[in-house]
Amino acid sequence: MDHAESEITFLLFTGTLALLILSVGFTIIYARYVQNTAKQQRELLELEKKHKQELLQNILESVETERTRIARDLHDQIGNTFSVLSLILQRSEDEKVTEAKELISAGLHTTRELVYQIMPPELELLGLRYALEDICYRINKTDSLTAECTIQSDLSDYNSRIQLSLYRIVQELISNTIKHSNASRFTLSCHDLGTETQVIYQDNGTLKNERPPDHRKGYGLKNIESRVELLNGTFDYNFNNGFESRILIKRFYED
Which residues cross the membrane (predicted)? Predict the structure, then answer.
């Protein structure tokens, strides 16, 4: 009887130990499975994010290429046409001719402004700092909006693609102020913060509400967010006292 009990005890012990080993083994295998699955999901999300960024970058580059082409066409074709007509009409002082010259002069000015908005020559020739200061200078000439610009960052460190993206972001911010904020002034500042550049934009508009949910964001804000995301930066904004936004991007250098 003692021998039988010992045998049963041994079998129970052996069975329990086997179950314990199997349980531990199963737990380890399951944990590795979960870990591998999570890793695969993270890798998949990274690939999707990278694909979206590459797709968005390709779209933006295509848009900029088309903008450049349109700007050149406007300048070369329409601008030259206005210039030639203006020279011809200068031969006469007839009242109708004078009126026509004024209209042509206005049309030529509009064409130049369109070319500037689509692809400002200052950005390509003189760099981002001058182009941003020139935007503020042009706005101050309108007497409808006061612009203050403080650039304390060496923006020339950025390559041409990043400078163009930052320029478009500022364009969009100013456009939102003009269209929606009912503001009388705005300030634009750029500062170096160690390995990052901070762009602060504020206006004194009448918008006084919380940060809007994603489905209520306008095209302008979504466009800015997309461009900042492509620069691996952050974009934060609020309407607590007019409109205020802060953009942080890492410093990039030419290869």
Answer: 12-33
Alpha helices in the chain (DSSP H): 2-73, 80-89, 95-118, 121-126, 128-141, 160-176, 219-230
Same domain, 113 and 148: no
Domain containing 197: what range? 127-255
Judge if 89 and 149 occupy the same domain.
no
- 42, 161: one domain: no
Q: What is the pLDDT of residues 200-213, one digit of tens each?
A: 999 998 866 545 55
Query: Same domain, yes or no, for 181 and 238?
Result: yes
Q: Which helix (H) or strand (E) holds 194?
A: none
C-alpha triplet 65, 69, 71: angle, nearest 5° = 115
pLDDT digits (tens, 9 = 90+) for 100-131: 666 667 666 666 666 666 667 777 788 889 88
What are φ and ψ of residue 173, in 5° steps? -60, -45
